[in-house]
Structures are given as structure tokens and as C-alpha cells.
Amino acid sequence: MRPIIPDNHLGSCYTFGRWSEYPCRSMKKRMSQDWKEVSAQWVGEMSFIGKNQSGGRVQMGTIDGQPGTSPMELLLEGVAGCTGIDIVLILGKKRITLDQFEVRVRGKRADAYPAVYTEIEIEYLIWADDLDPKALEQAIELSEEKYCSASAMLSKTAEMRSGYRILKPGEIA
To answer: Which of 20, 89, 99, 113 lies 20 to 30 A from 173 at CA?
Structure first.
């Protein structure tokens, strides 16, 4: 059995009963990849504060009477943000300007634990003058089939559906 990794050998290999001063090949590979790291600090009861590497924070659960987002809702928010960023970038490259943009995501979970999402519906609401529906459809297709990592991961367990509405500026959704 390998001993606990001492701080001065983090990333080193344990071979032939001793720690190497050089990183393992597998660790070199992992260190060179684009890894993301987050933490969730428990703040009492069923509540956590999530923090990412750049210092961004998110509240999970109710803290001091202020409701937060559940971890499963965060997954849906991740899909909304991921595909939303894709759409803005793709339409921006086509020099299409948006007055307002909202992505709504709904998810249905399985009845049995671990209660994964089994169905996810994405609705794109776009407020713009003279937006060509074909351009929007192409942007949505590229996001859903090529670029959005969050959708790609959740599509392994959930049936994904999407639709869109193009609205005139000032129109209520």
C-alpha cells in the first residue's frame, strides 16, 4: 500500500519503496491538461458556499434566511450559461446584435436515487430586430452538438430538447 503523499513529493511517483524526485508520467499528463478546481465550504445545516479558482462564489442552500440554489439546479444553470455563451459568441461572429437574451432550462429527475436528470428542456428567448431564424437555428445546433460541454455531459443521462422564440424589443415573453 502506498503511504500518504508528503507535501514535498506532491505529484511524484512512489516506486520501489521510495518517493521519486521527478513527477510520474501520468501526473505530468494530468498537470498539463486544463483541470478546473472548485470547493464547497459547509456553513451550517444543509448550506455550502462554492468557490472557484478565480474567486467566484455561489450559495447553495438557505443562509441567514436567503435562499440559494440547489446543487442540481446549478447543473441546469451551467447548461443555460454554457449554451448561452455559445449562442452570443456565434451570433456575434455573424455581426448579429441582440437587445436581450435569456435561456430557460427545465429538468425532470428520476424517481429513484441517485435521481439524475432524465429529461432536460432548453428554451432560448431572443429579443432582436430582424433576426434571421436560420442563423439562430444554426447557432443553437452548433452549441448543442459541438461546443456546450455541460449539455454534452448531461445528455448522457437525459433526453435533451430545445426550442426558441424570437421576440421584438420590449415584447414580454
So the answer is: 89
Which residues does 138 contact at the CB level (< 8 Å), separation at least 6?
90
Residue 47: CB partners within 8 Å, gap ≥ 6? 59, 60, 61, 62, 63, 68
**What's the CA gap between 30 and 5, in Å, rounded?**
17
Band the pLDDT of 15: cuts 50, 70, 90: low
pLDDT tens string 25-44: 554 455 446 788 999 999 99
Q: Contact 61/48 with Cβ under 8 angstroms?
A: yes
Order the strands of the 47-52 sheet from edge to edge: 38-44, 47-52, 57-60
Residue 134's CB is within 10 A of a number of other CB atoms, namely 8
Query: What is the three-state SS of 20-58?
Result: EEEECHHHHHHHHCCCCCEEEEEEECCEEEEEECCCCEE
Give the CA distances from residue 6 to residues 1, 21, 36, in Å, rounded to whole numbers and listed in that order: 15, 12, 23
Element (H, E) at 75: helix 71-93
The answer to whether 99 and 128 have CB atoms below 8 angstroms apart is: yes
